[in-house]
Design a protein that fits this description.
By secondary structure, this protein is an all-alpha fold. It has 2 domains: 14-47; 57-116, lambda repressor-like DNA-binding domains (434 Repressor (Amino-terminal Domain), Orthogonal Bundle), CATH 1.10.260. Helix content is 54%, strand content 0%. Helix 3 (68-75) packs across helix 4 (79-86). It is elongated, with a radius of gyration of 24 Å. The N and C termini lie far apart (78 Å).
Length: 117
């Protein structure tokens, strides 16, 4: 005898096709949260900073046209740390990875802040 499975009736709001779907509710909540966050109306204490797992230090440094020594001096890293990161002997700590990502995306902002300090 062939087994038939019974599907549970979806619960939640109706999607545009008029059917109830719990996934639709989850997606809509996420969209509403994203919109609130984008408008600057969200409670930012409920959000975590995404720390990148890996950062290509050599590529960031090359993009800026700096030597290892100049890169280290410019951003407050030790020359040995930059060398070790680039050669894969060590991985930057979370705070350094965050700073490196900011340097990668917006070096102008980092320059401005550090020059004002």
């Amino acid at each position: 005898m062939k087994k038939t499975s019974r599907r549970k009736k979806p619960q939640g709001r109706k999607n545009p096709q008029g059917r109830k779907n719990p996934n639709f509710d989850r997606i809509m909540r996420g969209l509403e949260e994203a919109t609130t966050y984008a408008r600057g109306e969200a409670d930012t204490t409920k959000y975590r900073v995404h720390v990148p797992d890996a950062v290509d230090v050599a590529a960031i440094r090359a993009k800026l046209g700096l030597t290892q020594e100049a890169f280290a001096a410019r951003f407050g890293f030790s020359k040995g740390a930059v060398r070790d990161w680039e050669q894969g002997r060590k991985v930057p700590e979370a705070s350094a990875r965050i700073l490196l990502k900011i340097i990668e995306k917006r070096p102008d902002i980092v320059f401005e802040v550090l020059d004002a300090a």
